[in-house]
Amino acid sequence: MPLVFLPAAISGIVLWMAFFPVNLGFLAFGALVPWLSLVRVKASRRRRYLAAYLGGFTFFVLATQWVRVAHPMMYASWIGLALVLPLFWVVGLDLIRRLDRFEIPLWLSVPVVWVALEYARMHFPTGYPFLKPLHLYQMIGFGWYFLGYSQHAFLPLIQIADVGGVYGVSFLVAACNGLLAEWAFRSVAVQRWLRWGEPVPALRAPTLRSLRIGTAAVLVFLLGSLGYGFWALSHPAFSPGPRVAAIQGSVPQAEKNLKGQSLAKTYAGLHLQAMKLEPPADLIVWPETCFADDWFEIADDTVPSEEFARIASKSLKNFSEFRPGSPVLLGLNAYEWQANREWRYNSALLLDTLGRKVGRYDKMHLVPFGEYVPLKETFPFMSTFTPYKWDYSCRPGESWTRFPLTSSNRDYTFGCLICYEDSDPYLARQYVTEQPVDFLVNISNDGWFDGTEEHEQHLAICRFRAIEARRPIVRSVNMGISAVIDSDGRVVALPGESWGGSKKMEGIVSAIVPIDTRPSWYARIGDWLPAACWMAIALGCVLAQFRTRS
Questions:
Q1: Residues with Cβ < 8 Å from 193, sequence gap 6 or more?
Q2: Is 152 helix (H, G, I), strand (E, B) or coil?
Q3: Is the Cβ–Cβ distance between 249 and 290 less than 8 Å?
Q4: Could you give the CA distance from residue 519 to residue 522 in angstroms, rounded to a whole number?
Q5: Which of 508, 448, 446, 505 is closest to 474 using CA atoms?
Q6: Maximum Cα–Cα distance for the chain, whole Å?
Q7: What single string gives the DSSP state of each residue in 55-120?
Q8: Residue 193: helix, strand or coil by DSSP?
Q9: Alpha carbons 323 and 352: distance in angstroms, whole number
């Protein structure tokens, strides 16, 4: 009986090693090869797809284990992710096999299917922009652990992200996997280890000539990507922008939830340190929801309740007494009276030196179970997967705020991404399509994850947003890792000496933002590559079905 479960599990383990905490990114170029044996192995449908699921489960149960650290109730969320996300691998195997019946080589079918499904996972189930006209759109999805993210440290290779996004890098890595699989499956030794018998007639391996053509095509793609990367990195020095001070405390989530003295004292002290920096900062940045007081606001042309009006008046007085010394971007909860009711937001609030409001951004891509309960009204049991026992639901924001900032040399604008909004390529590029900003800010609270590999992986993901938008990013993160990232994806400033040394520490990232004005094709065109992949899959499946019937 041929091996199916062991190769699939090996792929899951090796692919996990390509990401943090192991961070051996080169392994991603061949990690899927054992799993791809399921495309051509002679096995029952049940065994084949159970093995495909096992490979995905092995990967995701290892890769997402940091989710459970957030709260005892989040063990359920961790297991839920590990059980649901492997379904994309099952669908992927089915689609690759359908294309294989049309004799599409693996070096082409694997990247086409893998990129299409990464895009689907990023937006599943209601985060697809084409749902907007149907009023079914809500940003959602899990955009972590794309193949491309494994290459975050290889700067020349990932510069193609400004053409095809992280999906372009994933396409290249998947193509290499498909090519290696084609060569491996021709080996008698590999076939003997897999215990293959007679090949399935409908799944013929490509001829040696076509395989050589495929090898040449993948090598041209790989070398062309590297050549483009070295060219993109050989630009003149960036212009010096404003000086920022991104503060980072290390407040555990249990203490932060109380919004007590620990949170207030830690960040007040760090803010005072930032105010005393020489040269002074043009902007001080606080992490997500780390300002202990809430912001209350009444929308224009609305009449609030007496209670809300009283609280809003008191809040405004408290903020007027806050003298930040420099413009400051605060991460906090905002409450707004609008449409005859109170709404809660996860917000970034920009104040001037006198503590007056300059602008506010409300988080759009909310975290399921962390900031709202999906389908709570229909399925009340969904609250079981949350870390809270009270109603904490936030309302998603609706606009990309351009914050103004004046420094000693010129005026700037910047956009904000809150928490894991930096894992959504769609959000970041909106800031550079119309009225392009000069830089981006990411504020996050990673205190949930207590020094796990989530901190490094989050920073690795953020590097791609800088390249895709060709804009530098300033990160301020509770418990880390705060940083300044230039528009080449290079981490130019940290609070500590290394990535690992910058976790679970208090510090200030003080740096000049390197300004880049280069355009980005990806920002202009958007997700053309996943769209092309889905079109290719649809066409291939139709042709395969037609060929089978004929």
A1: 3
A2: coil
A3: yes
A4: 9
A5: 508
A6: 80
A7: HHHHHHHHHTGGGGGG-TTHHHHHHHHHHHTTHHHHHHHHHHHHHHHTT--HHHHHHHHHHHHHHH
A8: helix
A9: 9
Residue pLDDT, tens place only, 432-475: 998 999 999 999 999 999 999 999 999 999 999 999 999 999 99
The Cα 453–Cα 248 span in angstroms is 17
Burial of 130 (0-12, 13-18, 19+ CB in 10 A): exposed
Give the residue among 8, 13, 218 at the shortest CA–CA distance from 106.
218
* Among 314, 71, 40, CA closest to 198: 40
Give me the amino acid identity at 239: S
Structure tokens at 346: 């996860």
CA–CA distance, 273 with 288 (Å, rounded to integer): 19
pLDDT at 405 (0 to 100): 96
What is the average pLDDT score of the chain? 90
Q: pLDDT tens-digit profile of 386-433?
A: 554 545 578 888 899 999 999 877 999 999 999 989 999 999 999 999
Which residue, 427, 425, 416, is CA-closest to 461? 425
152-203: pLDDT as tens digits: 999 999 999 999 999 999 999 999 999 999 999 988 888 889 888 765 444 4
> 162 in helix, strand or coil?
helix
Distance CA 249, CA 264 (A): 10
Cα angle 141-529-143, degrees, rounded to a multiple of 5:
20
Q: DSSP letter for 372, please.
A: B
How would you write 3-48 as a 3-class SS string?
A: CCHHHHHHHHHHHHHCCCCCCCHHHHHCCCHHHHHHHCCCCCHHHH
The two beta strands, 473-478 and 483-485, are antiparallel
Quote the pTM value.
0.92
334, 347 in Cβ contact below 8 A? yes
- 399 and 274 Cβ atoms separated by less than 8 Å: no
Q: What is the DSSP letter of 477?
A: E
The answer to whether 247 and 287 are in contact (CB under 8 A) is yes
Contact 363, 332 (CB under 8 A): no
Q: Which of 121, 176, 179, 182 is CA-nearest to residue 154?
A: 176
Find the angle CA(32)-CA(33)-CA(36) to the nearest 5 degrees.
85
- Integer Cα distance of 77 and 367 in angstroms: 12
CB 140 within 8 A of CB 364: no
